[in-house]
Structure prediction request, 1039 residues.
Amino acid sequence: MTETSTTDATTNQGGEVVLDVKNLVVEFKSGRQRVQAVSGVTFQVRQGETLGLVGESGCGKSTTGRTLVQVQAATSGAVIYQGTDLTGMKGRALRELRTKIQMIFQDPISSLNPRRRIKDIVAEPLVIWKRGTKEERATKVRAMLEAVGIDPDAAGDRRPGEFSGGQCQRISIARALMADPDLLICDEPVSALDVSVQAQILNLLADLKDRFQLTMVFIAHDLAVVKNVSDRVAVMYLGKLVEVAGSDELYRAAAHPYTEALLASIPEPDPDHASSHKALTGELPSPLNPPSGCRFRTRCPYAQARCAEEEPLLREVAPGHQVACHFPVGPAKDQVAPPAAMAATDAPTA
Amino acid sequence: MPDDKELLDTRSSSKMLANRIPMTAATDEAVLEMQSAAVDGEVLQKKPFGFLFWFALSFVGIVLFSAVLANVLPLQNPNFGHFSELNQGPSSAHLLGTDDLGRDLLARLVFGARVSLIVGFLGVAIGLVFGGSAGLISGYRGGRLDIALNAFSFIILAFPAIVAVIAIVTFWGASLFHITIILGIATIPLMYRVIRASSLAFAQRDFVVAAKTMGATNTRIVLREILPNVIPVMVTFSLITVAGLIVIEGTLAFLGLSVALPTPSWGNLINEGSSNDLLSINPLIMLWPAMAMFTLLWSINLIGDRLRQRFDLREGVL
Amino acid sequence: MKARRSGGRTLEFKDAGTQVGPLLVVDDVHTSFRTARGTVRAVDGVSFDVHEGKTLGIVGESGSGKTVLARSIMGLLPPRDVIRSGTVRFAGHELTAMDDKDLRQVWGAELSMIFQDPMTALNPVKRIGVQIAESLILHLGMDKKEAGSTAVELLRSVGIPSPEDRVKWYPFQLSGGMRQRVMIAIALACAPRLVLADEPTTGLDVTVQAQILDLLAELQRERHMAVILVTHDLGVVASRADDIIVMYAGRVVERAPTHTLFHDTKMPYTRALMDSIPRLADPSGVRLNAIAGRPPDLINPPDGCRFAPRCPYAQDKCRESEPPLRTVGSADHLFACWFPLVDGESTVPPVPVSLSAPVAPGPQSSGASDA
Prediction:
């Protein structure tokens, strides 16, 4: 695919490619039919960057995330981590390699075993690989719990049911980091949390990313959240990438009508922010029978005849900015960004 | 407005609201959320088991203890007839009296417990070892293995177990060993189904996925992540099944299809004592084993139920 | 005060057309739960009113008591282990004095509720058309056929495509957004005068959230309903509520018309809630102003201002005596703070509250680590 080569040359100065996803396809059986949850997704993640993956539920973003850690098998395509294709791997080699890629889940309650103690849950990655003595493990568990803001003395002997959602999410993060991963896949890590707790977790992830030199793939449906943590954002719709750009660029000059709609749907905490009536209408079409041509055309306000006939491929519209659309939205976006909103956030004056 | 409206009103509106408004559940959650947010320093208080539980547990304990140590305990020979002491009531020589052949009823009751307990507990053990482990693996792995085991369990379940037992016993002879094995095999698919369902539910939770990404082997995931969550179901269901097998053995014995006389079992004791003439002459022969069986079954079920309550973690706290 | 009955059926509400004053008056409501550990004071003296056709936003974190407050207004509290006081007056009738039988006539018909999770709120084994029709037959005395066709119209009005076919569907056949639309259709079936929406869009995609909130606003305008929107996200109510109440630890800490609340925020907690929302306009990678710690234990709330342990501007006075809900200047802006913000800035210097301080399970210890 041509877009792969273009990405290479662009964005993210320096940084070697840690994760290279090539033409990833994931199919599920639904009765006799086959449903494509992911239909040919290609992207790269470079050392130290955070790639945001955003889209509505059902767009295949979580499936993509699960394929990256190989808890979901790919139907075709490749997931190349540090030069090794994970899709063909099996047994001990796979088990060992994928400790380098860890995952944070959406439901903090479900991601911790309710019958085990916090210190055992967090120590698990070390126990599995028989790393260190008992004392060394205990020390590392303490340090890691403290790093995520959990008091090891008060929490260690308790079970997950005694903690709030935000605290459980901190514990999951501690467990993931115990494996010394390079790459952290965060699958909607804050969408089950209150905004106040969400901010704590997002800040925590940002801190830990620096401290442990992590590379992240951050999956969410809320573009405001994704933009906050990501260097680059990939927008997914019905199994395909529709736009990839640096996160500020994406906000400033969204080229795909779908990205535009996603941006418009974010509730801004500002009463003067005119709720732009670009909110999406309708629902995600069934992946069993995706629309011909451009998959977004059924909900797109700008759809033309050509959109039904010919599928748009990802192409570069600006350096490091790719879009899959025949009629990208113009970069008149600057005027839409209301200066009032900026003022309200930075220096709140009446 | 028509009069019947009011009737309709209260009845169906309450029903409708009950459908529509998850009242207590959600409010409980709100309370729970606060409770758990408030947990501090102390361990969550657990509801005490209560007197009945301890009574039931001691009863089962005593029955188990005396059955296991029946040979060592100062009991009389259960098969020796004191022909001078037929059909006597309780006395210092015979605490529970004697039967129509002058045999000591206490000794017969205690030795009879052995049969019931061996069939109950050993039968369930067989079911647990084979059915339980198959269920755990099948629920976790899924796929073709699951489909095959599932189909197989249905085939065994479709067999009318009692008829099969009767047929086999009449064919092979009614020994304790045969009955235990047969009932044990009949338990396997039941255990399999219950444990598979539970295992399946936990296998889909995110902590299992997390364990995989940490490089845990399948064995470790089944033993460390899934099994501890399945154990409560396992224990409570096993206890219920123990009670069930004891009843089945009793039924077989009552029909004269269990352990051959004169070896006592609770079932054939009841059988003996309930023959028409004996029941009117000496009701104690039947009364003791019937009471013992009733109390044992009640105790086992109560223990199972209380344990289930205790195991019931309130998780979904967000 | 018992309502008059007409034809032995409905409580007389509709005659209140000439009624003046607010539609809903909540006066000093307290709701507590008896638990093994002690009494949880979930709602601790809340008063407010809602006028016909207006939207009130109630905002707070989990554990602030906002959900319990919503249920206290509805009268939907578990029968046991609840201590409640205060009054809720709706259209001139005292809901808190009504028994279940009378309340049932109000629920659905005059006052209805939209829940966070439509999957558990809808009956999974009934067709959605039947579930909508039920309440029409019940409260409006329609016959089956009329109710059926009205159900189709209602589904159309909440934006469900081909409603003629969808009435026959079961809840599980619908997506989350569609189910919430059905919930709204049921809630609005009998043209209630007040709708209580408890986190109606939490758990939905932002795109669907925008659709649902727009729909609710549109229907509200058409039908002149009052709406109470309960949420944890100030962003959700910012452009949709007329007034906003901010709740913290069972109490109202700030209450103002929306515009005033955002542009003349008095309570540091409200400010902190606003600041914790990531903004699109901010450059990526900007650090969010999270609020340290967690809400306090409602069994033993801290002395003084309940937000003091987490407040960057807390002074000794804040920890000693509890600030009353008061006004400065405009009468409709209430707040409970000894050192209110002026033009968004505090008059006292901030004391850094460290977020990285270990958070122990339980708010008491987290409070201690912050102090």
Summary: The mean pLDDT of chain B is 77. Chain B touches chain C at residues 1-3, 5-6, 8-10, 12-14, 16-17, 19-28, 30-31, 33-35, 37-41, 45, 318 (CB under 8 Å). Chain B is about 75% helix and 0% strand.
